[in-house]
Amino acid sequence: MWGYLRIALLFILGCTTATRGGEEPSELHFCLHGEPKTFNPILVDDEASENIRYLTGGVLIRVNRQTQAMEPGLAESWKVSKDGRTITFQLRKGLYFSDGTPFSSEDVAHTMRSLMDPQTHSATGDAFRSGPGTIEVQTPSADVVVVRFPAPVAGLERLFDQVAILSSKSPKKEMSVLGPYYVSEYKAGSYVLLRRNPNYWKHDARGNPLPYIEIIRLDIQRNRDIELMRFRRGELQLINRVDAEQFERLQKENPAVARNAGTGLDGEEMWFNQTSSPTLQEYKRKWFQQTEFRRAVSMAINRVDLSRVVFDGFATPAFGPVSPSNQFWFNSSLPAPKHDLQGAQALLSRAGFRLEGGNLKDPAGNRVEFTLITNSGNTAREKMATMIQQDLAELGISMKVVTLDFPSLIERITRTFDYDACLLGLVNTDLDPNGQLTVWLSSGENHQWNPNEKTPATAWEAEIDRLMREQASLSNEKLRKAKFDRVQEIVAEQQPFIYLVNKNALSAVSAEVVGASPVALNPQVFWNIDTLRLNNSREVGAKQ
Amino acid sequence: MIHWIRKLGQKFALLTALAIVGALLCATMIRFAPGYGMDERELNPGLSQVSRDAIRSEYGTGESLISYYDHYLRSLLHGDLGTSVFLRRPVTELLKERAPLTAKTVSLGLLTAWIAASGLALLTIRFPSWILGHSATTLTGLLIALPTAVIALVFVLLRAPVFLGIAVVTFPKLFRYQQNLLAQAHAQPFVFAAQARGLTRNRILFRHVVPSVWPMLVALLGVSSSMAFGAAIPLEALSDSSGVGQLAWQAALNRDLPLLTSITLFVTLVTVGVNFVADATQERRL
Amino acid sequence: MTQRVFRTICCGILGTVFVVGLFAQGFTHYPYALQFREFPNAAPSSMHLLGTDGLGRDFFARVIYGTRVSLLLAPAAALLATAIAAVLGGVAGLRGGWLETLILATADLSMSLPLLFVLIALRAFLPLDVSPVLSVVATFVTLGLLGWPSSLRLVCAASRNLRQSDHLLLARATGYSNSQMLFRQVIPHLRPIFLAQFWISIPLFILTEATLSMLGLGVMEPLPSWGNLLRGSEDFSAMSANPWRLVPLFLLVLTVICFQFVLPSSEELT
Q1: Residue in chain C lying closest to B260 (CA)
Q2: Helix, strand or coil, per DSSP, at residue A288
Q3: Which residues in chain B have Cβ-Cβ distances shorter than 8 Å to C260?
Q4: Residue B36 to residue A444, Cβ atoms within 8 A
Q5: Which domains does chain A have, with CATH numbers?
Q6: Each residue of A466-511: pLDDT tens digit?
């Protein structure tokens, strides 16, 4: 009996040792800044869900966040037809979803049909809707898919970076995935736990299966101060986006963890209300519709100060809709924004404005004063608005700053148009300007300064309409770029949006994380999640 | 007995009526407040017109208020509190998940605040000294002046439970009311008479002073439950504790009509219910 | 004696703070809005006694100009809220019956409703270019009008208690009208409750004003108030790096404590 007991004891000890391996499974711990609204990748429209989609979704083509080039994903190769309407994918063979269901062309067809279903309303699907009509998906074999669109889709290939493939057969539906991780647990309001996908198709150069890290725990944490506190305590290993003020302090405390990936895609901008809304006084509308007025305001704003004071130097002055970090689409020939008070005063004089007792007045004698609205709770924006207030005071312009809660602000800028000027941020997730058609087309809902125009109100808006429609119908990227470069030039001349700064992509990465190389594109830190490692932990597949 | 049953029935009917009125008033306020029906997804330039229209229809802005009332009351009779527009989940499910945490937090916070406030107030009356009195005033002055956000973060920093934050927010108010009430009662002529008769200070305090302010203390209990729940909302939101308070905060920011209406129903039930119990206790005593 | 000394000292402190706030331009030559952009977040120095804020504005100037808004308007709003609670609670307790039920139900409902939307609606009704003074006054009046429910039950319970008391019966017998009974008998008797309510409301309204600026109400930039100066106080690392930023909090605590010592105590009122 004692012999059996000894064997049992040894067995138990052995199992424990084997299981432990002397270490816990590796767990990466960071935060989502909101509750994920869905785990269905085709319905994603919020940041938290998008992050989960990135971590769990398998895509046909992946845009490498570092090089901004396209790379094969689930598709080994692809070909776009000359007319830009058809794309043919050659899929990888022998792949399986996280629950063991085999992957085939039928899954891609199912995903595309679900995405393009008229009842599905998402930005991902809408990006493919280039014209009326339905898409056709053919699956000539288990590893070939042909997708045909009713009209050419500009930048077609890049759009597939957002399309995570769903299984057509798995009983787990969208929870069965092809990405590096799958959702193992979800506690509403608290956390999402992801576990390594045992069937993930990627391997490293030595043939080890990826990803290296076994578990990712995503806490739902809205409060950035608490997030930073937890990072400092070592409870979190990374923060995907850090604001400038926190970054500066972090950098002083521990430079190694504070990572600055340079100019990001996001920016801040303001614009004037040029609509024919009855709530906007006619004399104000006249000011806002004058190019000289807008350009004078633009010249009076000291963007260098904004970058330095509000963002602690972690921002660059902006003069156009495209950030310099968008390597292909940025128009480098645009003039750098200048802070020139005398130039601004000259422009205003030319337009008939004059200074009287320190107050600027229009030709009709109205004092130039207006209100700038922005959303409350964003300290950086409130500071920028206050600095712009002082800059414009030097021209004799009186600007009031009013912060509003976001829904009230949206109502004013999209429905009632009861505002003078607005300051908001640009969050760019898409490199391709085609994703902003509704901003540039004068009939667009997001043509913020004067949305839903029946016909272009000005010649330059008509020109932008023409250029944007033309570039949307072309498949040659160089030709598209030339047209969009001209759009950027017109915008710089006319200043319908007064671009202020492009913020740097700032993040925090603990020394525990190996292989992190933060970039400007989202997700900044964990874009290469499958090759990240944690120091001093047992990671599956990692070289021991 | 019949009288009590009838009274109870009346109270229950009033409680239900008030809760429903509260929920409908809340719905009216949200429906007509600026920003209702606005969704930040509309600022996404990637959305088509059809998708935008679908987003707008989620808010039911085309529905009249009367038909909303009708729809809400009918659903309420079936136990259906609607679906959260913001979180896209049934409200009943959300409340079931989060209510126990908030109930526990608020109850513990309130209990702690009452013990601390009553204890300190009784101490200052029982052992009147300028050091104790002025120290208590200074402490409560400090606590009442602290922003809730600071309190929330201190407790996160100390890894202390949220209920202590509720206690810290509620304690100075409770103390101030209690101390004033007890001090006023202690200065009444009957106390001097009792002292002249040789009664001990403890006896006077616990057998005469406290009972004389008992109705007000009971009323304070009802008020303090509203204070505690009011404190729970920002505290849970700021410390990311997944209770009803955090849900209410998110719902308010996002104008989530079904969720806010149901939370108001729940809060009104609790607030009015506690106050009714307090009133009933006073009536029995009188 | 000690109480008198404390009271005198506190009166002196409150008076000083009040005078400094009222005659701010005599105590600092910097305007509260002027940005010294070369020196954001500067430490205290001979040039800037309390350093500068994130936009390079002199922090000492902002604190003392901010005193005007906070110290003048918050007590006024607190007084308004207390007065409304006094009248409504007194009437409810004295009359009883359906009137008491109605008033208490209204108070309970007010405490349960998200009055945030009332404030949002107020912002919508005010024009965007409303003057800062009007915006601030409207905010504090609104706070006063919405701040009464929390003490109403206490007032009602206390006046209900008094309803059958001897001196009220005597007053009724001598022919006092209802309003005379309310204002001459009931309300004076309930002063300890009103004092508590008043004292609690002052810091609450000062801090609430800062939260309201997130709805477009309250004090707008660049006008300072203690509330908006304290808005960043939850960022501990910022506060520990710039501890002088806690001066408004210190002033708020000091003012609240001084008010408590200056106001008559319950024993004195009895």
Answers
A1: C114
A2: helix
A3: 137, 141
A4: no
A5: 25-57+179-237+510-544 (3.40.190.10), 58-168 (3.90.76.10), 264-503 (3.10.105.10)
A6: 999 999 888 888 999 999 999 999 999 999 999 999 999 999 999 9
